[in-house]
Specification:
By secondary structure, the protein is of the alpha+beta class. Strand 8 (461-464) and strand 9 form a beta hairpin. The protein has helices at residues 2-18, 45-51, 53-56, 75-84, 96-102, 112-130, 137-152, 162-177, 187-203, 206-213, 215-220, 224-248, 258-267, 275-306, 308-321, 337-350, 383-386, 429-446; strands spanning 59-64, 67-73, 359-360, 365-367, 370-372, 377-381, 447-450, 461-464, 466-469, 475-478. Bound molecules: protoporphyrin IX containing FE.
Amino acid sequence: SLLLFTAVFILTADYIKNRRPGSFPPGPRAFPIVGNLFTVDYNRTHESLTQVTDRYGDVYSLRMGQTWIVVLNRFDVLKEALVDQGDVLADRPNLPLLQDISQGLGVIFSNGKIWKQQRRFALSTLKHFGFGKKSLKPVILEEFSYCAKEFKSHKGKPFDPHLILNNAVSNIICSLVFGHRFEYGDEKFMELMSWFGKGLELEASIWAQLYNSFPLLMRRLPGPHQTVQHIWNSVKDFIRVEVKEHKHNWDPSDNRDYIDCYLSEIQMADDTFDEENLVVCVFDLFLAGSETTSTTLRWAFLYMVKYPEIQAKVQAEIDKVVGTSRQPSMEDRADLPYTDAVIHEIQRMSNIVPLSLPHVTTRDIRLGGYTIPKGVTIIPNLTSVLFDKNEWETPDAFNPGHFLNPEGKFVKRAAFIPFSAGKRVCLGENLARMELFLFFTSLMQHFTFSMPAGVKPVMDFRFGITLSPLPYEVCLTSR
Ligand code: HEM
C-alpha cells in the first residue's frame, strides 16, 4: 500500500504541477511524467509536428517530460513571432545537452551579451573575408576545380558523392576560419566529418529528448547521449590544435583568417572574447556551415537526376549566358532566372533544417490568441511554411515555377524561409547562397548527372536536426 500511495502521490503532484495553463495554446493530451515525449516519431519529427496542426491549429503546445514547448506553424504566425515580436524570441532555451557542450558560449546556443558580441564579430569577419576585399569567390571556384577533378576521376561510373562534397564545402569554411583547406581523403578530416554527421543524428534522437527532459537521471545512465558528449569533445580538441598552431605563428599585423582576427580581439581585452569562446565559435561556424550546404548539394544531385528535363533546361541557360570558356560568377545570377529558381526550389523541397533551431520566450507573449509565458521553448516549424498549400501552387511537387513569373523572370517569395527569420536568422545565409549558386552552376556547366542503369533515385530522408538524403550513387559524365 506504501507503493500505491507513492504512485498516487507522484501522479497527483505531476498532474497539479504540469496542468496546461488556462490561456496556453492547446495540444494533444499529455501523459503523466513523460508528457508527449513518446507521441512524436523521431525519424520524421517535422512531419509528426506538422500533422498536429490539423487538430490543434497553428499555435499548439506539447509537454516533453516536464518541459512545455510551443510549436509555431505557417508564415503569418512565424513572421509575427520571429520578426514582429523578434525581441521576445531572440534567446535560445537552456537545453541541458546543448549547455553541456557549449557552456553558454559561441553563437548558436549563447544568449545575451555573449551572443550579441560573438554574432556581430562572426558576421563582420565573414564579411571581411567573404565579401570584402579578400572575396571568397576565388576560394569557392578554386575548391570547385579540385572537386571537379575528383568527380572526373570516376570517369562517369557510379560513385557516392557524399564525402567529396562534404570535404569540398567544409574546405570553404576551413579557408575562412583556419586559413587552409584539407586534401580530399585526409584521414583526420574524414574522421571529423563523420563525427559531425553522427553527432547531429544523436542530437535529434529520443535519447537527446530524454536527456533534455530528465538531465539529472540521464547523466548517470549509460546510452548514446553519453557518446554525443564524447563526439563533440573530440571536435573541440581538433579545433584547439588549430588555435595552438595559429598562436604559434601569428602575426597581428597580418590577420590571415577568423582565428587570427579573434586572437587580435582577445588582445584588445574585450570582455566576452577569450580562448574558450573562440573554440566554441569555431565549432559553431563549422557545425552550421559545412553539413548544411553540402546536404543541400546532395539533394540537388538527386533532384537533377530525377528531373533530367529540368537539368537540361538549366544547362541550356548556363551555356547561353556563361558559355563554356569561363567560370560562372555571382553577377551572372540576374541573367540566370531559371537556374536561380531551380536552386530555390531545391532548397524549398529539401527543407534541410525543418524545425529551425529552438527559441525561448524572454517575456510573456500573445500569439494566435493565446498567452505564452516567459521561459517556454518555441519551435519554429519551417516545414509548415515551405510546404504550405496556401503559399505554394504545388507544395509537394518539385516546381521551379514557384519562383518564376509568366515571363520567366525570377520572383522572390516571402514564404521561402529555409534560413528562418528574425534576430536569429542564419548567420551564414549570404555565404550559403553564394556557395550554392557558384557550386551548382559550375557543376551543371561541367557535368551531366544520371542514375546508374536500372536504379531509380530515392527521395526519402534521414532526420537528424538536418534532413539528409539516404546514401546513393550517381554518374557524372563530363559535358
Ligand atoms: C542558424 C539554416 C548555412 C551559420 C541557422 C538556422 C537555420 C539555418 C534554419 C536557425 C535560425 C533560427 O534559430 O531561427 C541554414 C541553411 C544553410 C545554412 C539552410 C545552408 C543551405 C550556414 C552556413 C553558416 C551558418 C554556411 C556558416 C557561417 C549559422 C549560425 C547560426 C545558424 C552561426 C546560428 C545563428 C544564431 O543563433 O544567432 N541556419 N544555414 N549557416 N546558421 Fe545557418
